[in-house]
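Collaborator request, handled under Task 6.
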Amino acid sequence: MTTKHILPIAIALLSTLGLQAGGNHTHEKKVAGPNGGRLLTSIEPHAEFLLLPDRKIQITFVDDHAKPIPPAEQVVIVTTGERSAPLKLVFVKTASALVSEQSVPAGKNFPVVVQIKANPESKTLVEKFTLDLSTCSGCGLAEYACTCAEGH
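Structure tokens returned to the collaborator:
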């Protein structure tokens, strides 16, 4: 069989399998946390990262249906701010969430490293993202919590 005969067969096979040029890639819609913050799903239970109006960070733990659950023994450290002068936020437990004692510095765009341990003895799980406070034109949330399928 020559190349000119193989190519049409390969195209037909790919079409049959649904593997068209450009792929069948779709973006999964992201889910916001119960307060409109970023949902951190790499940990169990999942957690919502939310910047409060006083620029403190609130971490709310949620069940599989994104319903808030009270914090237990989780230990959270968030590092943010300018890379040349990072700020490590310490959290205090409230009845429904963990809230940082310090506020995030002024500005609209910072790197964030969230370190969460299920309890003091467990392994630390890390999430990294940009705390981009500009508003998404698609979903209306802050970009750091954007739920649009485009994957900003």
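The cover message to the collaborator said: "The first helix runs from residue 3 to 17. Confidence is low (pLDDT under 50) at residues 7-28. Please let us know whether this matches your experimental observations."
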